[in-house]
């Protein structure tokens, strides 16, 4: 199920991640098809054909993780939150989202500090620096931090209602 973006931040994040997903998937597929055809037709293959999918796969995964978080598609255990009164649920969920945002922000900063170190590591054939794949992880963590912060603000601004078995929760469930 595809959820419509909630505001311009969601829209920008969804657009970036969908573009990365489509581009990386298409390039990986195209390279694998071309390399397979070359192997069967000529008995040879492109030297770099195995390296590019390895470099693009982290981008594909991080874009998918961010979109899944944006759509609330990750596994969540909410029975403890459901047991709380509506007002307390709002406070706890807001606090949880802020903690999650801080953790993703910390991971982004830690990854940023490692970029200089891993920049010296090069892929064997194309000589692409390791900082390219670490950069995608850093960017993904930063986007996840932005989404968590946005969820925290949205949770705080929501009107708490008692949970209903059939309805979607008004206060976004904190999941991590």
Protein traits:
single chain; 176 residues; mainly alpha; 69% helix; 0% strand; elongated; DctQ; transmembrane helix; cell inner membrane; transport; cell membrane
**What order do the SSEs take from the amino end to the carboxyl end, as H and E?**
HHHHH
* Main sheet overview: none
- The N- and C-terminal alpha carbons lie at a distance of 20 Å
Note the total helix count: 5
How many β-strand stretches?
A: 0
Q: Please tell me what the overall shape is.
A: elongated
β-strand amount: under 5%
Query: How many structurally independent domains?
Result: 1
Mean pLDDT: 88
Q: Structural class of the secondary elements?
A: mainly alpha
Q: What would you call the quaternary organization?
A: single chain
In helices, the fraction of residues equals 55-70%
Which radius of gyration do the C-alpha atoms yield? 20 Å
Query: Which regions have little confidence, pLDDT < 50, spanning 5+ residues?
Result: none
What does this molecule look like?
With 176 residues, this protein is mainly α. The protein has one domain (7-157). The chain has helices spanning 7-42, 51-70, 79-83, 86-118, 131-157. The two termini are 20 Å apart. Helix 1 (7-42) packs antiparallel against helix 2 (51-70) and helix 4 (86-118) packs antiparallel against helix 5 (131-157). It has 5 helices and no strands. It is elongated, with a radius of gyration of 20 Å.
